[in-house]
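Bit of a strange request maybe. I'm writing a small parser for structure token strings and I need a real example to test against, not something I typed by hand. Could someone generate the tokens for this chain?
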Amino acid sequence: MKRTLTPMIVGVWLILPTTVWASPKVAVTAIDGDSGDVRNAVAAALDGNGLTLIGMRDVNRAVDKLGDAAELTTKNAKKLAKDLKADAVVQGSIDDSGVRKTLRLKLFLNGKKAHGFSVRLKNVKSQAFKSKIRHKMVEMLDAEDQVVSADDDGKPHKKTLAGNQAEDDDDPLANASRDHKSDDPPSKPNHKKETRAQKASRLRGEQAEARAAAGEQQAADDGDAETRRANRNGRKAAEAKDDDGDDEPRRRKKTVAMDDSEVAEGPAIVEHVAGGRAANRLAARLDVGMSVAKRTLLFTSTLPADQAPQAFKPTPVDGLRAEAELFPFAFAAPNRFLSGFGVALEIDKTRAMTVGTSAEPGVVIPVKMQHYVVGGRFRIALGRTATSPTVTIGVGYGRRQFTFARTALQMDTSLDLPNTDYRFVAPMLSFRIPLGRVIALLGEGQGMAILDAGPIQEADAYGKAKVSGVSAMAGFDIVLGKRFAIRLTGEFTQIGFTFLGPGGALANGRDGDPGNRDVGGAADRTVGGSATLGVMY
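Reply from user aminoacidic:
Good idea to test on real output. This should exercise your parser:
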């Protein structure tokens, strides 16, 4: 199966000699497509009870040094373990290509890659999910001929099978185990066809029998018949419990298929969880907030100041901003190729704006200042982690209006400013570069192929012109948990005019001589910014 999700790396416990048990160190890295809940749950499952969890900041720094650790090699696993002083490393990923999401894990132990297992996610905060993660890790170690047991105080320790026979001769458990084995026929059973999980289950059963036998021997020495009966009952309970554990391989058919290099032959744990998407692979987002903009209109003219068109430089005005993004295929599989296709919409409208004119003092002229852009997008993730950069390309159709309501004027010419109503096609390129899990740097550039500039190009205004424009944005995206984010941006837009042909009345007739061009061009510039609150899914 093609892997499509960014892996995570988990350190598990290092196998030490029989008589020594240090507290193994565990490292948990980010899981692709996860807002943090699954990572925290896996860390909680492995932390404590004799295991030491390495700080997530230290783990993130170590992974960053490796570069893109999406395909973790044995060599990189060794480097990571050495840098963190971790005892083992586990690589994992969330696969949401099927009906249910699945957590996949692979174990790197003592410089070797062991097999892995899969867990369907349902409720990562449940104790059952955490217990199953830890149980499967222990089972994988058992498959490597390891036995994990616990003292009466709950502190774990490890023993190899050979080490069981190296116990003190006074240990009744060790003595009973040896006596029990000595009664068996000398022929060695054939376990070649056993799966690893079955082998681990068999070994636990043998230990249970050995403990029960040791108890019976001790009771016989004391002459306590009641103790012998209790121990026999305990042995039956241990065997019944082990039989229940043998049922686990029959659940194998419920697992999601993995390739041979990634799947343990043992049982799978079937769970399901609705995990979140990372901000760089979201399926939908809606931002609403405030904006501010300052528009200027400057003309290039050969006339003296009293005849040339006056520059328009109003004060900044506030407005309302709404933005939306939708990537429909990312709802089911945010890491598949099709998940990059989407649509986007941006709308901005000034709340209230008016201007006046010296030709008719005291007259208030309302102004409509607004714009929108809607178009298609294709998002490309440059990596497989939640902090991987993304690049988005697309094209849209837009409109920018700046019009004066001249109905309050006695004469339209009292206001020496043209209306503009731009319609354009805008190819675009944007990027998002996470500076960690919370803050990301944003940038976008648009070209503007102007289809129509509106009334400014009419014969009674400035006439035909060559018009082109550009737009740029830069800012920050601040992620607040799984569902919310704050976006702060600064923006710049400029549309340039070069008037052509004989020109309109306002371009050639300002000095009374229509044979000479008075105005050669113009620059319509807007500088502003916005602050919005976004809801992500």
